[in-house]
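Workshop exercise sheet. Pairs work together: one partner reads the sequence aloud, the other fills in the structure field after running the prediction. Swap roles for the next sheet.
Pair: D.N. / O.F.
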Amino acid sequence: MTLNWRDLTSVRRARLPAVRGAVDRPRLTGALLNARVLSVTAPAGYGKTTALAAAAAGLPGPVAWLTLDADDADPLVCAAGLALAVGALPGGERVGAALAQGASPRRVAALTADTLDVCGGLLVLDEAQALSGTPGLDLLRALLNPGQGRVALLSRTALPLPDLTRLELSGGAGRLSAADLAFTPPEIAALWAAQGLVLSGAQVRAAHAVTEGWPIAARFLAQATAQGRITPADLADLDGNGTSLGTLFSYLAQEVLGPLEPSLRSLLTRGSVFEELSAALLEAALPEPQAGALLEALAGSGTFLTRLGDSYRAHPLLRAHLRGLLPPAEAREIAARGAAFFEQTGRRRRALAAHLLAGNSARAAALLAEWGGLWLAQGRVTLVDRSLARLPRPDWTPALHALAGDALRLASRYDEARAEYARAGALDRALGEVRLALDTVQPALAWAPLDTAAALVDPDGTGQREVRRLRAENLLNAGQPAQAVALEPDLRGGARYALRCGDLDAALERAQALADGETGGARAAQNHREGLLLASFLHAARGELQQAETCARRGLEEGERLESPFVQSLARARLGHAQQAAGQFGAARESYAAALQQAQGVTGRLRVEPLMGLAALAGRAGQPERAGTLVAEARGQTAGDGYMEGLLVLTSALGLAQGPEAALAAAGLQQAQALFRACGDRFGQAAATLALFALEGVPAASLALEAAGAVAAYPFLLGRPSLFAPVGTRAGRAALLARLGAAVPAARGSLTGAAHLLGYPDVPDVADTPGFEVRVQVLGRVAVTRDDGRVREWGRAKARDLLALLAVHPDGLAREAAQEALFPDAEPGVGERNFRVTLHALGQVLEEGARSGVFLERGDWLRLRPGPDLHVDLLDAWAWLSRPAGTPGRLDALLPLPAALAELDLDAVNREAERYAATLPVALADEAGAALAVARPDRAALAAERALILDAAHEPAARALMRASHALGRGAAVGRTYASLQAALAELGLRPLPDTQRLWQALCGPREE
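Structure field:
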């Protein structure tokens, strides 16, 4: 009897697994899309099958699946499985037909790769470790070149395939590990959301810490929470809560404990009292003389015991489960012996945890009182908070109440902190109230407790020096930097001192130095002192808006990591400042509203900046009454901070100045001047003075002189779209600079910095700065657009033709030549009259509202005058086309360029169109070659594909695309490119050059079978 190949395999193994409740994981889908061969290696329980099945189902193109097992060690059985898996794909039936006709297993694998190539399909091989060390592994090698298709190999262990390793090194294959498959905090949140539960940010991070992203554990934990067996609060502290989360994972632990020898099981169970294990600890605490050897055996036995230097660590859930197996009395005895060991070895944090587990409350309280302040300084707020929560309240001393106040203050829980300080000693209570006022920037609230503290400390001791330092910082918060540094000279080197004195360069340098050491790591939130957020504000003030937004978003991420509502609220306000300065008013409004929402219940001081931003937006929108209401509300929260009050008044007045009620802004700007003068802030005074100059039609000479000094000191106030710029548009600021140069001619030299930022070689004349920008388009179509987005209407069609004619003659054109080109058949008098009307119509389109001649040079010689206020797309295009291939930014500038100029019946325009149409594909092909030279085949493919769209017979572009496709592993694309080129050349009666033919033969030689 002849055996049918279908009898060798099972339909069940070739089914795509059904997935329910899968979390959307775009990074895994992206890995499948971006790698033609993807290997996924992770132990059981990491969700390889679930993740890949869900990702595959969302991909374009057909998907085939095959779950391998031990039988596939036989190459014939494996080949039968491949034939069955791809049988339903387009063209896949030929694989089974070849196998039925006696094709070798390797030939079947090669045909499988061909099928994937032709249809662009994906083949997933699950449990691929079943082929390791077997003849079936050889079939995988034939699948590693799927062309336009993709292959994913899912395995519990690394596959011994040198070909796969070479592909990875060359960029032709991707790899995902257990770390890649582990759930991220957002995916943890999505997993709970799928169960109908919404976790707070802290609860998400706790769930992630408990499971360490292990997918099977996270899924089970989410289900247990949804079923009410645990609460989200239980996630925060495995050692301290009453419910042992470990009991929920008994079935997982049994997989670990089941095969263990009794001695190993005992050691692991009794050692679960401690977070980390070492031989010396277990010898002392259990006691166990063979602890070292047993730990080594456990680490190599496949348990969740990980070696960390000289110590070992179990997965938190396994540890929780094992602790639940210990009798409470035995756990306390082991913990007590461990506490003694930790004290002897100077490991006080471990000693504290062990004393708490052992029930030694008095010693735990003493350790907390002695070392808690240092741990808080190290950023271990959670450690102190949890330790205090485990300590019975009757054992708390006044010192512990002060420590609790400090921990709560660092967590932005100010009302709770104030209550704890109230139960501390007199000095700690006074110092706590001072620090609360400093942290929330409410200087008025600090003066009385500062006086109390000064009376309680030794006049000549370190306490008095500490009180003096706190008083100096409060003076800085109150907007009195000179008095602050007189009391504490070291403050002079701080970023906030530099900011409040108007030295923005020094402030930014110091803020960036602070930010460099902030991101990541254990630390306490610095709240308003966060370097990233201070840098964001400074960038917004300097008009560096991309950097301002980046710093704000990074600060927001850091605030979320630190679980600090203060930092998160302030970050959203700073993000709003960057967005408002960029003209993204809707987004800014949303950011300010989110900042206000997050500030609820934290401190009123946090509301000032978002209210300030909203007041400015209201002024811009012509709502002076609402702006005034918002300013009054914010002013009530400044609590004696004169600098912040100045910022508030200035920003809201600038909003009015740039809205329809600009005349109402003068009083606010004058008030801001006075406030900043009292604070000694030069920058605030400069911004207010410049805005006043912008408001007044004929300003006094002294005001003009002061405004010129402001721009000389802070050129970005006019050169960039700063948060404190007096005018929102670049062209409007250029016009203001011209006015200032005309008002103070002697200061023109000091204003060139702003002129350069605006794009001028020198301070422009008033006549040459119309206050708006115009964009001329002749690529694709002819159009004129103002900077407000309005497309200008053509009074006459011939005006459009004249504009195109001048655009293709950047050096200008004689009036007679232009007239002859537009009206070739007209009588001389008629032609001249028609041309005069056409020229006037073009001037109206380009220059309405500006001085005649600012953009269009008239007379016997006609010429467009491109510059910062007039942009011609054709000239910009030629500027990029003329640069060398590989110039940074050139390819990105060339890719979106239109294919041709607008179609007009003008010889000069048509000649330019031909030159442009011939140059663009050459430039793109050159860029493709430059990208290949630096090993960027993806960029080369983009350039070459665009060139071939423009000119299908462009052989250099075709050769570049063939090389790029080969480098990217797209074998079928090489053949398609060559075939398309042949067809395009045939229409011209040509054939590919010998170089092109040889390249095709080299890249598309016969495939090995």
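Discussion prompt: The radius of gyration is 37 Å. What would you look at next?
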